[in-house]
Amino acid sequence: MISALKSFADRLLGRGDATITVPSFDGALKPNQILETAETVAQFDAAEDIATDGKAIYIADGSVIRRFAASGTTEVRRFDRAISALCCLPDGGIAVALDGREVRVFPTPAAANATVMFTDPSMNAVNALSSAKDGTLIATDGSSARPTGEWVYDLMERGRTGRVLALDIANGRVRMMAEGLHYAFGACTAGDAIFVSESWRHRVIAISSDGSQRAVLDNLPVYPSRLSPAASGGFWLTAFAARTQLVEFVLRENAYRRRMMAEIDPDYWIAPKLRSGQSFLEPMQGAHLKTMGVVKPWAPPRSYGLVIRLNESGVPLYAIHSRVDGVNHGIVAAVEMDGVLFALAKGSGRLLRAPLTMIEKELRA
Amino acid sequence: MSSDVILALRNATKLYAGVPAIENVDFELRRGEIHALVGENGAGKSTLTKVMAGVVTLTSGTMQVDGVVVAPRTPLEARHLGIAMVFQENSLVPTMTVAQNLFLGQEKFYNRLRGIYIAAQQFLQSLNFDVTPTATVGLLGSAKKQMVEIARAVLHQAKVIIFDEPTATLTPEEKKYFFDLVRDLKHRGVSIIFISHALEEALLLADRITVLRDGKHVVTDDAAKFDRARIVQAMVGRDLSNTLYGTRKTTVRPAGARVLTVQNLKMAPMVRNNSLSVFAGQITGVFGLVGAGRTETFKVVAGVMKRDFFHGGEVILHDKPVRYRVPAPAVRAGIAYITEDRKVEGFFETMSVARNIYLGLLAKMPGGRFILSGREADKVGKGWGERLKVRSTGNDAKVVELSGGNQQKVVIAKSLVQDPDLIIFDEPTRGVDVGAIVEIHELIQGLADQGKAVVVISSYLPEIMALSDRILVSRQGKVVEEFSALEATEEKIMYAAVH
Asked: Fewer CB atoms < 10 Å away: N or C end of chain A?
């Protein structure tokens, strides 16, 4: 009774759980246009993930794995289903998640047969793979309720069925490391622990070998996605959308949200998007987006592009942005190779290239 | 005395309890000139001008107006001689309206309020001052109060107007209006005496500059013959030009842990959906024009003001949402807010230095105390007084007897004694002399070096740029831009603050 009254009062006054606030992009997350002005080196129809073996970039483009190197882009292999995650292994192999339900490990990117296949029936939305030190493969299973393509449904249904799985390549076993996560999306080994992005809670958590969890990076102004190691230590964390007060509000209004999901085309939901500005039917996000016909870069974003550089402890050092008035939105993966950062903007289907020297120079200017 | 000289002081000496505030000072004010009076706090500027304005009388020496020896004993007598003073301390009646304050002392037997308001409106408009004559003065911000003070002096049609720190509370735009007004008064033949700690203003505005030090006259010369370094050297007897607002920063402190997050804070009408973060081990400078909501935002953080009741946003301290309705729990949580208005909110002026500092410590103690220890108060006061180099005649000296810079140090000591994690300095060097500015700046830098999260709110751009590691620019109630100290320029910051 008391909690019901408290909940009612909180909703009325906008406090406690009903506080509809969003942190700002400041400090290490200070906005810039580096990601927006980064060079576009390739364009894909259905880009999903990227990985690197140190010599080339591998791109999951629909059901095809492509290889991008200085010589250009070539097709490596093709599957019968869409690829939902990709990971280069230290031994030269490659791990591929298909449709979020199956993970196959190949000895080389072009090898005909997989050395091991993981087809655990509980796997539903495997969206990221990462190689662990002990030879296992870490997989994040975003949702047990919705497939990878329906991530926005999972958000609107306030899904909390994400899991982290350890896939043992040696014996083909699957071990659950964590469950009940609010959309696990991306993992990376960090010392003895594993850093995992929990998108709907806007945070990165560390899962220790004993299964205990702690927040490494909390209250982010974005929906974090995949993690990858940085060459000089630390990590690259991508974010596929930014939070807005309007979406936060809708997420707290259950009746409104249910009706919106039942009656409105998902393209026009009040929800984060990987790209925007395509139709006048898109909902305005709480403020005027344009002044004199020009999109304001600081307007509340319907879609956004962000890559955050973290140190070994998970503390943000800096970030590169594609703001509201940009197009390189929906960044789902970033990897570093030979002093160059490659980022995949799923919204525009672009593979972006930004030399680290250029980033540091721009941030210093 | 030349006919060109409207006001002169010869061998002017004023003793307070046997101690000279000014000693054998010779001063001349020419007709229609703007004369800047500069010096450290305690140099005797205010005493000298108070003599002219009839607030205090000379112990020895003479004062002449238009060649006639005079000795005004009250401000009214000085006003009858054509001398008006705009005081640094606000001398308006807070419960009266702007118009009533303007015409205070000039009331007729029968006063029609409507007539007063119309006359005040016309007069304020002629000065280009955006102040509503029907507004109650107590509800005005300090900048607008200052405008009313200035307007009142102009209204009295004085031949000599003395401004004591007139621009300390004004925004850059308001300062421009003020400078235009002063030049206009000069063209009308009014002589101006202008006390300012902002030396650029003295150089920009004045025809002649007089420098006082330790109650003695040091030099008077044409403003064109001065530069900043020469003035500072004359003021303090040493070269401070490299330490005060010195060379451009080449390194900034890295951000530590996030100490404070303000999310979508609302406090109508001043704070509008404001969001910002403050990190440990860094000085976060907050710049903005008056009315940008900077002070109000941090007053909400410190529990001095309350955010909007409905959906007023969130303040997160050390990753935990907090909401302070009064300052006490904020103080206990490690937040120190050092006010911009030290005379009203900063200290108890008739209490001693030691007791004021001890009060800060008492505020941190949960539940308060029934028995106060005089010995402990003396010990704490002495310790912090020495640490912050508070120059006073002793622990028992009343704060009101100290110079502005030393008063500010007492206010700072009162907060630092609480050992806070987050220290918010609101206009830390307003009305403070250059010597004390250097010491206060060193203190602020030292706090950041110790790993404290420091916020410096200032309307003075060189101060913001000299101190800050990161600079937040506030406009119309919210932070609109962030700069690293390495990339910031005055032009960029001002552009963000205005556009």
From this structure: N
Measured between CB atoms, does A28 come within 8 Å of chain B? yes
Using the 8-state DSSP alphabet, how is residue A36 labeled? T
- CB-nearest to A27 from B279, B311, B486 is B279
Which candidate, B120, B119, B171, places its Cα nearest to that of B143? Answer: B171
Domain ranges of chain A: 25-279+293-364
The amino acid present at B372, given as its one-letter code, is: L
**For residue A23, which residues of chain B lie inside 8 Å, CB to CB?**
261, 263, 275, 277
This model of the complex carries an ipTM of 0.78
Facing residue for A22 by CB, picked from B264, B480, B486 = B264
Sheet hosting strand B68-70, strand order edge to edge:
B19-30, B5-16, B60-65, B68-70
The dotted CATH code for A25-279+293-364 is: 2.120.10.30
| pLDDT tens-digit readout, B354-368 | 888 888 888 887 765
Q: Dump pLDDT digits (tens) for B179-217.
A: 887 888 888 788 999 887 777 788 888 999 999 887 889
User: Which residue segments constitute the domains of chain B, with CATH numbers given?
Assistant: 5-236 (3.40.50.300), 242-334+420-499 (3.40.50.300), 346-419 (no CATH)
Neighbour-count burial of A322, counting CB atoms closer than 10 A to its CB (0-12 exposed, 13-18 middle, 19+ buried): buried
| CB nearest to B276's CB, from A24, A219, A245 | A24
CA–CA separation, B499 and B175 (whole Å): 18
Q: Is the pLDDT of residue B393 over 80?
A: no
Residues in chain A closer than 8 A to B323 (CB atoms)? 15
Confirm whether pTM is higher than 0.80.
no
The verdict on B309 touching A (C-beta cutoff 8 Å) is: yes
B275 in contact with A at a CB cutoff of 8 Å?
A: yes
